[in-house]
Design goal:
This protein is of the alpha/beta class and about 300 residues long. It has nine helices and 13 strands. Strands 10-9-8-11-13-12 form a six-stranded mixed beta sheet, with helices on both faces. It starts with a strand and ends with a helix. The protein binds guanosine-5'-diphosphate and zinc ion (ZN). Zinc ion (ZN) binds near residues 270 and 273.
Length: about 300
């Protein structure tokens, strides 16, 4: 039998069979794929082959090769990693301009890692109902301009608006999407609003009960009525990436990648080199200042090591 892992807690996982039924399975043995030293052999989104055992329990026998996956370090200094999710068609970063304000550096870091994993990224701008001042309207327009220019589709929504929720649900139709973002931006609220059966704890609820904030939570995949699948990753802010070299960082910024080969020096890092096409594009406004500053910020800091938050 084949199915998709919709929840994984290490030694056990919940599998959605191709006929739509769900089955709890045990995970035994060591599934080492492509040399990743991982603390969890099976991740949400994995396509698995399972078999029924004599005692009627079910067991994962095989994991299909992943088209992609995202990881974070198991612990800060650990070489081992934790696979968060696999086989995603897209990642959505949910951001807000206020309550809380998502920083552009956070967005750019996230997009850089999505580029490194070769997963198409889109931006969901939530809580637009709160953007009623001219200043916040300006911020909204700016953010859309910056990121659409870089090639990332932006969708402004308010979870409190049914029409927007329907619009968002249509984005997820027939695809496997991961939704990431800072805590409090409305990820759980959106998933709940798309299907009230889900009933994921939102921040306001967990505050009431003084719980849920720091408990260990696992990524989980939700099936929408329209055939879309959403992976929610509670507590995950950003991903770690291991194959990101400083020298390649500009390739993870689509606006800079477009200018490859146009700088005077082949190995130009676009910092202060003469006749740098990237710096010129920043000067003419073709590349937004914030994107370039965040490039420098990530390049010069040890951010590349700190992606795992
Ligand atoms: P998560 O941590 O990203 O899952 O965020 P939650 O879904 O828990 O939402 C955090 C808080 O934001 C809750 O109190 C929600 O009611 C509120 N919220 C979610 N979406 C919206 C929105 O579109 N507008 C406003 N004003 N509040 C929202
Ligand atoms: Zn350059």
């Amino acid at each position: 039998m084949q199915g998709t892992v919709i929840k994984s807690t290490g030694s056990a996982c919940l599998v959605r069979l191709d006929n739509g039924k769900r089955l709890s399975c045990t995970v035994r043995g060591n599934f080492r794929i492509k040399g990743i030293q991982s603390t969890n052999p099976v991740a949400v989104g994995d396509i698995v082959t399972i078999s029924k055992q004599k005692d009627d329990s079910a067991q994962v026998d095989e994991i299909a090769e992943r088209t992609n996956y995202i990881i974070r370090k198991a612990t800060k200094l650990s070489k081992r990693s934790h696979i968060i999710a696999a086989n995603m068609d897209r990642v959505f970063l949910m951001v807000t301009l206020t309550n809380p304000k998502t920083h552009l550096l956070f967005i750019d870091r996230f997009l850089v890692t999505a580029e490194a994993y070769h997963i198409p990224a889109e931006i969901l701008i939530n809580k637009t109902d709160l953007c009623d001042s001219p200043a916040l309207q300006d911020d909204l327009n700016t953010i859309i301009k910056i990121y659409e220019h870089a090639g990332y589709p932006c969708h402004s929504i308010s979870v409190f608006n049914n029409k927007d929720v329907a619009r968002a649900a249509a984005l997820f139709k027939g695809k496997v999407s991961l939704v990431a973002g800072n805590s409090g931006v409305g990820k759980s609220s959106l998933i709940n609003a798309m299907d009230p059966r889900f009933d994921i704890k939102t921040a306001s609820i967990s505050k009431k009960h003084q719980s849920g904030k720091h408990t260990t939570t696992f990524a989980e995949m939700y099936e929408l009525a329209n055939g879309g699948f959403i992976i929610d990753t509670p507590g995950l802010k950003s991903f770690a990436t291991y194959d990101l070299e400083k020298e390649d960082l500009s390739h993870r910024f689509p606006e800079m990648r477009n200018l490859i080969g146009q700088c005077k020096f082949d190995n130009c890092q676009h910092i202060s080199e003469p006749k740098c096409a990237v710096i010129q594009a920043v000067e003419t406004g073709q590349i937004p200042t914030s994107r370039y500053e965040n490039y420098l910020n990530i390049y010069q800091g040890d951010e590349l090591e700190r992606f795992s938050n």
